[in-house]
């Protein structure tokens, strides 16, 4: 996006050196693009590197190390690209900052070599669903579009290997923290709720400031799409200046231009002709998904997609794995895998969309969770809680007065079996842990896969 701002490489003899910290999807993709652009590249991961990423680095003849950070090989870089997972308080990052070596994200780096237009989607909840849905609508509408960021193949790798006119990027706050000159043409901010506060000195306003970075560098030709019903978003907008054209969405009030709800119809009204669709026809059900569909629909309208294309796509979309994913119906009991719910808010959304009695599987690595916001929904809808984690004390403390049965389990298989026994015909067994998965599983995908396998064995 920012090619004109790039200073040409003045040195002809030695290419500039780039060190990349973290050899996951984003790091390995960035390494490939940097090598392609003629940089001297070194990749360093403090942990072990997964086999397929190690294989790629070897195939491309990119030098790397694992299980350590060799400082003299990193602190001699002209620039460092860091994985979103590495916090600023990591010792190596502190040393880089002391030396004044710029530390940027893979997205920032790839953006320099990409002239496609960008839809950037962020928010505490619904990012992946909204990014996937937006991509689905645009692709079906004939747009030459890629999907990247926090999802799928890395943006850098796609910039190196593909030629898209548009990208839909799912942007986490950690990615946004290390983005400076990068600009998105259409910014979407879904909501702001307490999450990852351990990375933001436990201050919600610091985390909110990260989210608002999605609008940085926008001009009057660009768009900012946000939820007018979200109190933290509205609070954060006060005292900030936005150059982009604003297109809010709401299910509480009629908003024009923007999107709103009228007699159970989503109405989207931008400079283009009105779009209207019954919420009953949406592929994604539940109140939070009305918001996600509105946000995606506004993006489609900004790109001037046809109403019938949009309606077809919004009605046919299949949600991503591990996000309220239907697994099976066994003896009249529905099993739902929502392993991607790694914070309390995601679990709140999942419970909010349930119509049956629920046996809820909760637990894992707790990021300082406040379970209070779940209490009302748990009282109303949950008949039993099955804990799936190494330390479940805080879940017991939070819900012992609201639920008759709280059971501890130590594997996905055990959790599925016990939940099955606690449920009766017409109930839903919901895996929506509200916690990270690293105590018992590799990641939330692994947790969801093990749960699905266990359910199919019942």
From TrEMBL:
The keyword Ubl conjugation does not apply. The keyword Transport does not apply. Its main location: cytoplasm. GO terms for cellular component: cytoplasm. Keywords: ATP-binding, Cell cycle, Cell division, Cell shape, Cell wall biogenesis/degradation, Cytoplasm, Ligase, Nucleotide-binding, Peptidoglycan synthesis. It holds the Pfam family MurD_N. It is found in: Cytoplasm. Pathway: Cell wall biogenesis; peptidoglycan biosynthesis. GO terms for molecular function: ATP binding; UDP-N-acetylmuramoylalanine-D-glutamate ligase activity. It catalyses: UDP-N-acetyl-alpha-D-muramoyl-L-alanine + D-glutamate + ATP = UDP-N-acetyl-alpha-D-muramoyl-L-alanyl-D-glutamate + ADP + phosphate + H(+). Belongs to the MurCDEF family. HAMAP family: MurD (MF_00639). This is UDP-N-acetylmuramoylalanine--D-glutamate ligase. The gene is murD.
């Amino acid at each position: 996006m920012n090619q004109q701002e790039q200073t040409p490489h003045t040195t002809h003899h030695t290419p500039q050196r780039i060190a990349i910290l973290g050899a996951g999807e984003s790091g390995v993709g960035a390494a490939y693009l940097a090598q392609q652009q003629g940089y001297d590249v070194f990749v360093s991961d403090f942990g072990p590197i997964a086999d397929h990423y190690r294989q790629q680095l070897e195939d491309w003849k990119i030098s790397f190390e694992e299980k350590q950070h060799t400082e003299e090989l990193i602190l001699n870089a002209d620039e460092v690209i860091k994985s979103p997972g590495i916090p600023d308080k990591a010792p190596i990052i502190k040393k880089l900052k002391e030396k004044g070596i710029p530390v940027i994200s893979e997205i920032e780096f790839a953006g320099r070599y990409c002239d496609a237009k960008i839809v950037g989607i962020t928010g505490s909840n619904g990012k992946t669903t909204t990014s996937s849905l937006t991509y689905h609508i645009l692709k079906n509408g004939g747009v030459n579009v890629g999907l990247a960021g926090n999802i799928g193949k890395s943006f850098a790798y796609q910039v190196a290997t593909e030629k898209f006119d548009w990208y839909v990027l799912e942007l986490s706050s950690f990615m946004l923290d290390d983005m400076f000159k990068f600009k998105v043409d259409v910014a979407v901010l879904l909501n702001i709720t307490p999450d990852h506060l351990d990375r933001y000195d436990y201050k919600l306003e610091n985390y909110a400031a990260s989210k608002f970075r999605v609008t940085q560098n926008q001009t009057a030709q660009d768009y900012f799409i946000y939820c007018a019903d979200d109190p933290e978003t509205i609070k954060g907008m006060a005292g900030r200046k936005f150059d982009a054209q604003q297109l809010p969405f709401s299910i509480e009030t009629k908003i024009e231009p923007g999107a709103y709800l009228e007699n159970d119809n989503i109405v989207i009204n931008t400079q283009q002709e009105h779009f209207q669709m019954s919420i009953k026809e949406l592929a994604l059900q539940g109140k939070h998904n009305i918001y996600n569909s509105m946000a995606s629909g506004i993006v489609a309208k900004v790109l001037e997609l046809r109403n019938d294309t949009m309606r077809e796509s919004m009605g046919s979309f299949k949600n991503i794995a591990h996000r309220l994913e239907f697994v099976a119906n066994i003896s009249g009991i529905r099993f739902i895998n929502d392993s991607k719910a790694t914070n309390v808010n995601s679990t709140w959304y999942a419970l909010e969309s349930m119509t049956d009695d629920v046996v809820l599987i909760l637990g894992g690595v707790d990021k300082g969770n406040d379970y209070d916001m779940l209490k009302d929904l748990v009282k109303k809808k949950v008949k039993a809680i099955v804990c799936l984690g190494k330390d479940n004390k805080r879940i017991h403390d939070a819900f012992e007065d609201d639920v008759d049965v709280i059971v501890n389990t130590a594997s996905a298989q055990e959790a599925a079996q016990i939940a099955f026994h606690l449920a009766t015909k017409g109930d839903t067994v919901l895996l929506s842990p509200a916690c990270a998965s690293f105590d018992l599983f590799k990641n939330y995908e692994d947790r969801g896969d093990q749960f699905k396998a266990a359910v199919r064995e019942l």
